[in-house]
Amino acid sequence: MDVRQLRCFVAVAEELHFGRAAARLHVAGPAVSQTIRSIENELGLILFDRTNRRVALTEAGRLLLDEARGVIDGFDAALAAMARLRTGDGAQVRVGAVPALPPQLIPGLLATFAAEAPGIEVVVRALPSGRTADEALDTPDFDIVLIRGDVSAPRIKTVVMAREPVGVAIPADHPLASHPTITARELNGIPLISFGRATDPMQHDRIFDTLAAAGLGDPNLVHESHPGAVEASLRLVEGGLGVSLKLQSEVDAFASNQLVWRPLTGVQLDVVVSAGWR
After folding, report:
1. Domain covering 87-160, topology
2. What is the CATH architecture assignment of 163-271?
3. 3-66 and 87-160 share one CATH topology?
4. Engineering a disulfide at 242: which of 144, 178, 193, 267 sits with its beta carbon 3.0 to 4.6 angstroms away?
5. pTM score of the predicted model
6. Which stretches does DSSP call E strand in the chain?
7. Angle 233-44-115 (CA atoms, 0-180°, nearest 5)?
């Protein structure tokens, strides 16, 4: 799902009429219907109740509308920041990104920026390990940074670019794979593959403190990996060595029929990706 699809969804949600939404977006009516069907298929949810007389948002649609508006506002703010940096065609904006961002995020952003700001060349490089957003932006190497979590520094402007819930990657033949959702308590005693606390103490404590409050005792960590080693940790899950806390987009991108992803229930545990700039 990209920003253009979200703009289409918001237009239909606000107009509650596919024809008026198409006119507002200056596109053909069938294209709007196709986009909404594509979003619904991707999410596995119905966003609109449609009859011959009316269009209404479902509960899922109302929830997505709030999130979609936030993502669009964040994207527009980041685009405006890039435009302010632009001095003419051929201008370059340097983006620093931490490892283990949702796999579709950067390709989607690059495609959208290319469509909406074709005069700007966007160069994405990895942020040096251990460098904060504030430190990275103090150098001439980066104009914008993308990190997991909130950017908190007094001189930095920030927006949330993406938010995705954490779930559990499970071997397809594991007993938990038959469960539609997983609770923190059900992870007790299960071998767990996770990044080590030393690599990212703040994120590690946030995740495991949240799970502990929901019923997870001492986690049975059998392998500690780097936060960016998503594929390596999923290989271990695929091999039956344990389960791992992952985003659905990470498991989908891994594309293995030997793995399933199940949402965590009873906890509010999201990965937030923020953009920061001066």
Report:
1. D-Maltodextrin-Binding Protein; domain 2 (3.40.190)
2. 3-Layer(aba) Sandwich (3.40)
3. no
4. 193
5. 0.65
6. 48-50, 55-57, 91-97, 120-126, 144-148, 157-171, 182-183, 192-195, 221-225, 243-247, 259-265, 270-277
7. 80
In terms of phi and psi (left: phi > 0; alpha: psi -120 to 50; beta: otherwise), the region of 99 is: beta
The pLDDT, as a whole number, for residue 11 is 92
Residues 6+ apart with CB under 8 A from 248: 164, 165, 167, 261, 263
In terms of Cβ atoms closer than 10 Å to its own Cβ (0-12, 13-18, 19+), residue 274 is: buried
Helix (H, G, I), strand (E, B), or coil: what is residue 245? Answer: strand
What sign results for the dihedral spanned by CA atoms 235, 241, 244, 249?
positive
Per-residue model confidence as pLDDT tens digits over 161-183: 777 888 999 999 999 999 999 99
Structural domain boundaries in the chain: 3-66, 87-160, 163-271
* Nearest to 243, CA basis, from 264, 228, 274, 226: 264
3-state DSSP call for residue 126? Answer: strand
Mind listing the pLDDT tens digit for each residue in 137-157? 888 888 888 887 766 677 787
Q: Which two tokens stand for residue 46?
A: 């119905």
Reply yes or no on domain 3-66 having CATH 1.10.10.10. Answer: yes
Lowest-pLDDT range of 48-57, 94-103, 152-161, 269-278? 152-161
Percentage of residues of the chain with pLDDT beyond 90: 31
